[in-house]
Amino acid sequence: MLRPDTLHRYEPPSFAKNFFDEGAMPTHRLRLANLPTPVHRVIGGAQDGILARLKELNIKLYIKRDDATGGAELGGNKVRKLEMLMCDAIAKRCDSVVTIGGEQSNHCRATAAASRMMNLSPHLILRTRRADAIERNDEGMGYTGNVLFDRMVGSTIYTCTPGEYGRLGSNTLVGSVCDHLESNGFNPNAIPVGGSNALGTWGYISAVEELMHQLETIQSDDSDFNFGHVVFATGSGGTAAGIALGLSLAHGADAHPAAEGKEAPTCHGIGVCDSPDYFYTTIASIADAMGLKKMSHSSTEDFIRSIIKVHHGKGRGYAVSSDEELRFISQFAVDTGICLDPVYSGKALYHFMTKVLEEEPEKYRGQKILFWHTGGALGTYEKGNDLLKSTSSSGSKVKRIDCFGKSDSGDTVVCKQET
Ligand SMILES: Cc1ncc(COP(=O)(O)O)c(C=O)c1O
């Protein structure tokens, strides 16, 4: 078990320090994630696959593997925020953590695991259409994907329906569970949906510093190297806030050495659940809560709109996949060996490559594009059947080995017995 004495002093990146109120910056963090996560050039095989279009436009696609921040329990983007948020819980001497998300929430799973690592008890509110059926015992909570891990680490799970969630709001629901725990003698720490508040967002400001160091290394071989575009999924807004603010400030007045004389890449947040306007407002309120000092814009939201373009990538709905999205995810896995998830990373890259890119292909010609993979693999389990259906033309075959040497079909592997 990790101990509270594993708190580390947190040093905000020098490119960001002067732009936030000092008192609002974190002073400590935990180290839970495997960092730095690698940046890979995506090189694929198939001639007519997804990457063929990129080749036509002479686009080089890179991927930042935040799906590799941890093992199955902690992996994905959330652990970067949890390094800050769990540190806060420890500093406040909490004994439990309460958070909230969808039934297959990656954030809830990572928070539950991180809580146990720090010897705190996890309480998760999961939004599910099955809430009433589960309560009546018509069906159980089950063990699929993230829920399996939530339960393996012994989380207490509370359910609510999407309607209740919409009516009451996530903060009220978290507050109610905290009140209940307090009245039973516990000292809980509330973590908002997605870990997307001012404190958690520092995890992604620091992720940008990590990327800038990686750029420096690449630039030692190719001094002109720079990303023209950075693309990622946006759900509760904290990752987008951290990446957009971080990249803008890293290329600003106190520029990171890797950014000197270079333009900031264009940030593309692909909204998977709400409208772009909602995200601009949400990101601006996170920036305000972080104590962002006044920029030369009339409002924080105007500034945010100038540093990130949010796209409407929800498609058929949050966590609802179209056949095209699933086919894209399957084909991308065949072409590259990289698995995207249907709710966030797959939906985001699908939307960027098939819609955003195709609207203005010339804008992207010859560019280097970084896709920030934010994880979510466990969410894939819930959609296993649909994904497999969509792989039937391109994907995996299953064959029986003939261990008795009976087959004479040239297509069958016949096992030769040693004599
Ligand atoms: C795998 C994955 N990718 C992306 C996101 C979006 O990140 P954020 O909530 O910070 O916008 C989430 C969570 O919502 C996620 O679980």
TrEMBL record:
Reply yes or no: does the keyword Ion transport apply.
no
Q: Which Pfam families match?
A: PALP
Keyword Nucleus applies: no
The GO terms describing molecular function are:
D-cysteine desulfhydrase activity
SUPFAM superfamilies xrefs? Tryptophan synthase beta subunit-like PLP-dependent enzymes
Domain Tryptophan synthase beta chain-like PALP: residue ranges: 46-375
Keywords, A to Z, come to: Pyridoxal phosphate
List the Gene3D superfamilies: 3.40.50.1100
Q: What does the record give as cofactor? A: pyridoxal 5'-phosphate
Which residues does UniProt assign to the signal peptide?
none
Protein family membership = Belongs to the ACC deaminase/D-cysteine desulfhydrase family.
Q: Can you name this protein? A: Tryptophan synthase beta chain-like PALP domain-containing protein
Organism of origin is Thalassiosira oceanica
